[in-house]
Amino acid sequence: MSNPQFRGAAGLALLLLCTANFLDAMDVSTIGVALPAIQAELGMRATSLQWAVSAYVLGYGGFLLLGGRVADIFGHRRVFLWSLAIFAAASIAGGFVDSGPTLIAARLIKGIAAAFTAPAALALLLAVFGEGPQRAKALGLFASTGAAGFVLGMVLGGAATLISWRATLVMGAPVAILTLLLAPIALPLDARRTGPRPGFDWAGAITITPGLLLFVFGITNAASAGWADIFTWGSLVAAIVLILGFLAIEARHKDPMVPLAMFRRARLTHANIVGFLYQGAYIGFQFTATLYYQDVYGWSAFATGFCFAGAGAFVMFLAPRFATLAQNRGTTGFMTAGVGLQAISYIFWVLSVGHIDPILLVILSQIPLGLGYAMTFPSIQVAALADIEEDKSGLASGMFFAAFQIGGGVVLAATSAVFSGAPAFGWEPYSAAVAFVATLAVLITLIAALGPKPSSAADRYQAAE
């Protein structure tokens, strides 16, 4: 943030938007290491304990498309401030919960608030920084704080748990409140509309929002209860019906919530497909490696979380640079190289686990993993938001974030199924699960390589400008 291009009001705006993005991402993983302490105090059953984590993802993933579209219609600044205020209030309320249901409710509300904050914040960033190198650098910083928040959430959660598990819920509130106090000074006012406000697509909202909620719920439930559970397949069937209904509505609506033409934008669609799969592969690896480090090596929650700090450092310091390079030289190559490095990390882990020193295993697997994440995440973000009109920037941001959140849930459920079913085939479960992730990462590398490329030097120059 010391870059002279980011001084003044624009620099403060970027700082505030990156801070909100960090908080939203951090809360996805920060509570995971506190689950044993939560179970001990609140007496939650293991089957309901997972929802302390999953409720946030449920609200976040389920409401992102709605949040993005609401921000486009009612104002990015207005939606950002209101949703961040709700996030702060829910964080404070979480420190006073006295039962499992109230804890899950607080987490759900925080997730819903984040689903409105994240796309509004990214749309505001696009409004503050016009096309060109400044936007590329700003997107890089925004991407680095979001990715670092997610990766470092386990580390910060482990440190907060040393005080109290309640600190993992409350610790974001002071930062959110400070951001709210400074935001009116730095964030641009919402543009005054010269014509009538677009009609709100209520039919689309009441089909896609519960459709995504049920889809995320079904996938999450499958990880714990299995695919044969009635709540799993029942939710997924209902989700498919609602999503198909949503597509039919959008094809006919005058002011659709998600114009179907958005899916015909090659760069946006390709970026979201890669993001869906690559984030899911990372979540699957993190899930399996976390279990292995705690169950086999016997490491503490804090030590296990700290294992991922190296990747977080790579992302925090290198993502802004890679965003600029991707903007200038094309995103497809950096996506491909980044996912390829992650595939190398997963393959190395499978081949080396149990054969080399544990500390060496962590260090040598985190280097390509962190470097690959730092290359891939900002490249996907730059590609997804290229050539997006301002009145659709919130929606495009919501689609981008939704791909990451839902992809994480889908691939995690598949990884959990491989992990649980491996012993029946005589496979070691940890290696089998990471081998699945590694195979998927190789496939993602091929998909990334097939992405759109600048057709000429003039196109690359235009992207850089």
UniProtKB/TrEMBL annotation:
It is found in: Cell membrane. The chain crosses the membrane at residues 49-67, 79-97, 109-129, 141-163, 169-187, 199-218, 230-249, 270-293, 299-319, 331-353, 359-386, 398-418, 430-450. One of its GO terms (cellular component) is plasma membrane. The keyword ATP-binding does not apply. It holds the Pfam family MFS_1. Residues 13-456 form the Major facilitator superfamily (MFS) profile domain. Keywords: Cell membrane, Membrane, Transmembrane, Transmembrane helix, Transport. It comes from Neorhizobium galegae (Rhizobium galegae). The keyword Transmembrane helix applies. It is a multi-pass membrane protein. This is MFS transporter. Its main location: membrane. It comes from the Bacteria. GO terms for molecular function: transmembrane transporter activity.
